[in-house]
């Protein structure tokens, strides 16, 4: 029997609707497998601006750092869009990632077989399956390099050190060891010096993982290969900007933004787990948001932060069973859907599968 403390950031928009479903699911897992999860609510994003005057109160940082892990819904919305850049809700998320030292973003992109009709790719391509994980470097590269504007000229600098590349490459190889043992590293080494360093360090790191097959792919080719034959990818390793773009492309080819989870990790076990979608203000407060991405984020937390693999699999398989039974939330319904349910009902159905 173990006890885990989880900081919870419900956030804005649909966040306060989807996160409670993930909490209920974790409690059901606790009941079934004999663990206790304790949850502490903290503020971040738009709601924090409204209640505490800042998108990231110090209390939130302190609570997250003291916790075993952090579960996030989503932040932001039209209400805060006119604020100056450095006061907006997203500043909270960037600040929390920095405070927690999270340099690795892990995003699985998979086509759930019961949802294969949602895949926008040709049927024969979708039939080969999509099941990959994108490991993206999160704290370096062009988003954080020297930048400036001088009259008609503006510039941003892509810069990586050996240690930054090595630590993210290790995450990719470790991830591959627990999956298909194949890493495709993305770069633009035909043009960029930073990419040539990236490639060099990735291959040097690969030597410690002889079981993993490693290869390089230029980013422009990767963008094409993702739509031509996504089944070739197991783990994709990419820098910050390439990973940002390719992970959205990978998400789109699965056809279901409400289904995909993510984890941001650093050197400790305390990670930040969140759905890849935003706060969906257009559907907030209607009990129609899909809670599955957040529920699967909780499943990732069990696996990556707590090492509870069987418990994590129990959630994934419950989600699959509910989908196989023909039940859908509105965003993933199609002509074969037997029953459309709301956010709360979807959470309840997943829980009854777990407890079955
Ligand atoms: P979004 O992901 O919130 O929504 C895009 C579309 O997908 C919308 O039509 C929405 O209704 C739908 N959608 C998203 N999640 C869904 C779910 N769980 N179930 C059903 N449908 C779902 O992206 P956006 O509209 O570009 O952004 C809205 C707000 O979210 C903005 O303020 C943006 O800054 C913020 N945002 C936050 C995060 C985050 O918290 N990490 C990430 C992306 C965007």
Helix content: 40-55%
Strand order of the largest sheet: 2-1-3-12-11-4-5-10-8-9
Structural class: alpha/beta
Looking at the structure, what is the overall shape? globular
Radius of gyration: 20 Å
Helical segment count:
12
Distance between the amino and carboxyl termini: 20 Å
Low-confidence stretches: none
Q: Mind sketching the topology for me?
A:
Layout: E1 2-11, H1 15-33, E2 35-41, H2 46-52, H3 58-66, E3 69-74, H4 89-100, E4 104-110, H5 123-127, E5 131-137, E6 147-150, E7 153-156, H6 162-177, E8 182-187, H7 193-206, E9 213-218, H8 219-228, E10 235-238, H9 240-254, E11 261-265, E12 272-275, H10 292-304, H11 309-324, E13 327-328, E14 339-340, H12 343-355
Parallel strand pairs: 1-2, 1-3, 3-12, 5-10, 8-9, 8-10, 13-14
Antiparallel strand pairs: 4-5, 4-11, 6-7, 11-12
